[in-house]
């Protein structure tokens, strides 16, 4: 029997992806390269209650880096409210895990932190307007004294974020949240995780400080933060250095966290929405030359994010249209002329244009192509899939997700430095 070369290449690449990108290697499972697979057998059915729903948000240290993602989530939330018939529905009600890097981590924290009423702290459109307001009030670019969040967090330490999050910690989220930074003390990536926080006080951090850590400018001084019990200390620079696109870390976390996601054994059991960045607003000529280091870091972060997207797209290849959606500013079209961020109305109009664009998709060994659907159409389809997953769970007697509960551990006065932890924590 002749085997299609592209399909065979995909099967081989899938094995490598499973072992080395997602850290998943279970020899007891059927091989992706089995004869049945090559013959075109259907993918394994998802768990009893459906698929695990994952949200991933890219982002740099500037509020504008999360504007496109916030606009996408505001549109998605409106679709969910309409389709569910519940005007109070929130994005966090339909996702099981949220991962966000940089400004994307701030956005994830805003949408998944618990408010005084026990519901998510922000609606998606509220978060969008707050980020847009932060973007309007300050200039952009390292040539003008650093990014907005850098100045916000370092010159006036966490004042604005303190107003937003107060003293809430990672335990105070309605769903699992994953936010990365790079720890200079250990020379390794560090992933702030609700799952870790629920297990030990030494990994529970205030959300406002987590946001500071993931947005810290690598070209400037690190942000020094400690866990709520003072035992774990991190010298953090931005999450984009290690995980500009945190989708892979979220997938790894789910596939290896059997306590919380017992039925997730492969990508067929997941449905992922990955939101990219690269949304840029025009800026005045800088008063000082831009920092070459900052520019190089940003280029490297954007390139890494694209590579992660391509790798994940390959891993989902057979079921990409049903399991993985990526939305990112492609940088061309009429909306290339972005209005000044001081004009909120024009900024919102520009974001609407971005949502009407057709996205660029990665193809296995064939580069990229323009999608047949607009970003809005993808979001509307994804909202329908989230509603279906929610309906499945209501009918299922077996829970898809069993969240960890807090474990009380003896306190100690000693201070330790954070050790490197894998994204499968």
Automatic annotation (TrEMBL):
Stored InterPro entries: PNPLA_dom
Domain PNPLA: 55-251
The keyword Zinc belongs to this UniProt entry's keyword annotation: no
Pfam families: Patatin
A GO molecular-function descriptor: hydrolase activity
The keyword Lipid metabolism is annotated on this UniProt entry: yes
A single GO BP: lipid catabolic process
PROSITE patterns given in the database record: PNPLA (PS51635)
Keywords: Hydrolase, Lipid degradation, Lipid metabolism
Source taxon at top rank: Eukaryota
PANTHER family, A to Z: OS03G0784100 PROTEIN, PATATIN-LIKE PROTEIN 6
Family membership noted in the UniProt record: Belongs to the patatin family.
UniProt name for this protein: PNPLA domain-containing protein
Species the sequence originates in: Zingiber officinale (Ginger)
Lineage of the species this protein comes from: Eukaryota, Viridiplantae, Streptophyta, Embryophyta, Tracheophyta
């Amino acid at each position: 029997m002749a085997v299609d070369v592209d399909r065979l290449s995909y099967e081989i690449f899938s094995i490598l992806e499973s072992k080395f990108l997602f850290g998943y290697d279970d020899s007891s499972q059927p091989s992706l390269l089995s004869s049945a697979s090559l013959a075109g057998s259907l993918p394994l059915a998802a768990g009893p209650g459906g698929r695990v729903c994952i949200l991933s948000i890219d982002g740099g240290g500037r509020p504008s880096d999360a504007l496109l993602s916030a606009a996408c989530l505001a549109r998605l939330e409106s679709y969910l409210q309409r389709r569910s018939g519940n005007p109070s529905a929130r994005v966090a009600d339909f996702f099981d895990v949220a991962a966000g890097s940089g400004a994307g981590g701030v956005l994830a924290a805003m949408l998944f932190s618990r408010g005084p009423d026990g519901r998510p702290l922000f609606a998606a459109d509220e978060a969008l307007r707050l980020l847009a307001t932060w973007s309007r009030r300050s200039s952009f670019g390292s040539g003008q004294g650093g990014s907005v969040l850098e100045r916000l967090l370092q010159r006036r330490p966490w004042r604005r974020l303190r107003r937003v999050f107060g003293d809430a910690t990672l335990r105070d989220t309605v769903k699992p949240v994953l936010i990365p930074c790079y720890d200079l003390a250990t020379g390794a990536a560090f992933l702030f995780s609700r799952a870790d926080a629920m297990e030990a006080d030494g990994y529970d951090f205030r959300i406002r400080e987590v946001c500071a850590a993931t947005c810290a400018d690598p070209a400037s001084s690190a942000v020094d933060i400690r866990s709520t019990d003072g035992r774990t200390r991190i010298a953090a620079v931005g999450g984009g250095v290690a995980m500009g696109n945190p989708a892979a870390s979220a997938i790894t976390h789910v596939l290896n966290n059997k306590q919380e996601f017992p039925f997730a054994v492969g990508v067929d059991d997941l449905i992922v929405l990955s939101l990219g960045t690269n949304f840029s607003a025009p800026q005045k000529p800088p008063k000082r030359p831009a920092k070459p280091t900052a520019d190089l870091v940003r280029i490297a972060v954007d390139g890494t994010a694209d590579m992660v997207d391509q790798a994940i797209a390959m891993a989902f290849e057979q079921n990409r249209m049903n399991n993985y959606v990526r939305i990112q500013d492609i940088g061309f079209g009429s909306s290339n002329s972005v209005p000044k961020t001081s004009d909120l109305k024009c900024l919102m109009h520009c974001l609407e244009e971005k949502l009407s664009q057709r996205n660029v998709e990665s193809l296995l060994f064939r580069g990229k192509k323009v999608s047949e659907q607009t970003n809005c159409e993808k979001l509307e389809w994804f909202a329908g899939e989230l509603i279906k997953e929610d309906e499945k769970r209501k009918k299922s007697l077996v829970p898809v997700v069993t969240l960890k509960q807090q474990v009380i551990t003896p306190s100690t006065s000693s201070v330790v430095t954070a050790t490197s932890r894998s994204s499968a924590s």
